[in-house]
């Protein structure tokens, strides 16, 4: 009789453990303490992966439960993943959501653009934290010998030289020349017309090589492309703000910020130190110097005192 009671007690204990185990399996996406896991993701390009990886490492160092899901996909993949809760954090560019998600006209003012997308996504349960000072947009670059010869520092300096009749060949893409926020807008803002006989149609991804090979003196660029540094080119200051703004900011789902209200101020320590020179150097370390994203991200965070 005692043996039967003992067996029955053991059976009850096994059942109880099994119930607890099943209950534990129902907390997918949560940490062991029941707090939500922060699933950090990114788009595939180097810059996006650097931003995502730095965020993952930084949040992990701060003690948050995090999961790494980098390089998930382009906007058409990663945006639905954020909206559905498959992921709950990634970096996005203000102008990308304004134009591609909101179907809004481009903005040329960083704060205006940020407020528009922030208000729009608040209704979607998506929180935009403070944006970084760097702007990954179009820019105008020149070869260093040309910049030195004509003392070019701003686009206005270039316009003055072009208006004086100096024949500087300009490499740009056909697509940019036809965009409403492209060449025509640039010329309108700066009040000039670039001589069309001096404009060479080159894929935007190849303009850097065209200048390096001395096939052109001036070219269209993306402002954070590391080839500007790699080829020793000079990015001119857009002193009249002719190009749309694309400032990056970390996006979090509302429930993550509700659970961890300290994150906005903590993430600000990272976002506020990412200016154009900094992100371009980080991009260069990966794309040109061939270091890994993880190595570059970790070294930068350690240098800035954000992680040990």
List the helices and strands and how they pair.
Blueprint lengths: L1 H24 L12 E4 L4 H16 L4 E4 L5 H10 L4 E5 H8 L8 H13 L3 E3 L9 E5 L1 H7 L4 H9 L6 E3 L1 H5 L4 H8 L8 E3 L5 H6 L5 E5 L4 H4 L3 E2 L12 E6 H6 L3 H9 L4 H12 L5 H11 L5
Parallel strand pairs: 1-2, 6-7, 6-8
Antiparallel strand pairs: 3-10, 4-10, 5-8, 5-9
Helix pairs in contact: 2-15, 4-5
Q: Explain this structure to me?
A:
With 308 residues, the protein is an alpha/beta fold. It folds into 2 domains: 38-135 and 246-303, D-Maltodextrin-Binding Protein, domain 2 (3-Layer(aba) Sandwich), CATH 3.40.190; 138-235, Osmoprotection protein (prox), domain 2 (D-Maltodextrin-Binding Protein, domain 2), CATH 3.40.190. 48% of the residues lie in helices and 13% in strands. It contains 15 helices and 10 strands. The protein has helices at 2-25, 46-61, 75-84, 94-101, 110-122, 144-150, 155-163, 174-178, 183-190, 207-212, 227-230, 254-259, 263-271, 276-287, 293-303; strands spanning 38-41, 66-69, 89-93, 126-128, 138-142, 170-172, 199-201, 218-222, 234-235, 248-253. A 5-stranded mixed sheet has the order 7-6-8-5-9. Strand 1, helix 2 and strand 2 form a beta-alpha-beta unit. Helix 2 (46-61) crosses helix 15 (293-303) and helix 4 packs across helix 5. The longest helix has 24 residues, at 2-25. It is globular.
């Amino acid at each position: 009789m005692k043996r039967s009671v003992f067996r029955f007690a053991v059976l009850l204990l096994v059942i109880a453990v099994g119930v607890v185990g099943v209950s534990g399996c129902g907390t997918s996406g949560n940490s062991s303490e029941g707090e939500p896991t922060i699933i950090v993701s990114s788009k595939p390009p180097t810059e996006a992966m650097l931003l995502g990886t730095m965020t993952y490492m930084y949040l992990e160092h701060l003690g948050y439960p995090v999961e790494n899901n980098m390089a998930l996909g382009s906007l058409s993949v990663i945006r639905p993943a954020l909206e559905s809760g498959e992921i709950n954090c990634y970096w996005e560019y203000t102008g990308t959501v304004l134009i591609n998600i909101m179907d809004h006209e481009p903005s040329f003012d960083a704060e205006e653009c940020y407020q528009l997308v922030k208000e729009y996504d608040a209704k979607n349960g998506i929180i935009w934290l403070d944006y970084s000072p760097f702007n990954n947009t179009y820019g105008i670059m020149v070869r260093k010998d040309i910049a030195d010869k004509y003392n070019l520092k701003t686009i206005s300096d270039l316009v003055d030289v072009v208006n004086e009749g100096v024949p500087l060949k300009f490499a740009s893409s056909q697509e940019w020349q036809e965009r409403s926020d492209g060449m025509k807008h640039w010329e309108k803002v700066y009040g000039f017309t670039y001589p069309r006989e001096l404009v060479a149609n080159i894929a935007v991804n190849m303009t850097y090589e065209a200048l390096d090979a001395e096939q052109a003196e001036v070219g269209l660029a993306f402002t954070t492309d590391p080839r500007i540094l790699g080829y020793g080119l000079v990015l001119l200051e857009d002193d009249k703000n002719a190009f749309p703004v694309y400032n990056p900011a970390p996006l979090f789902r509302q429930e993550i910020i509700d659970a961890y209200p300290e994150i906005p101020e903590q993430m600000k320590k990272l976002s506020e130190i990412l200016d154009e020179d900094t992100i371009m150097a980080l991009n260069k370390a990966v794309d040109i110097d061939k270091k890994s994203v993880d190595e570059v991200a970790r070294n930068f965070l350690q240098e800035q005192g954000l992680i040990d």
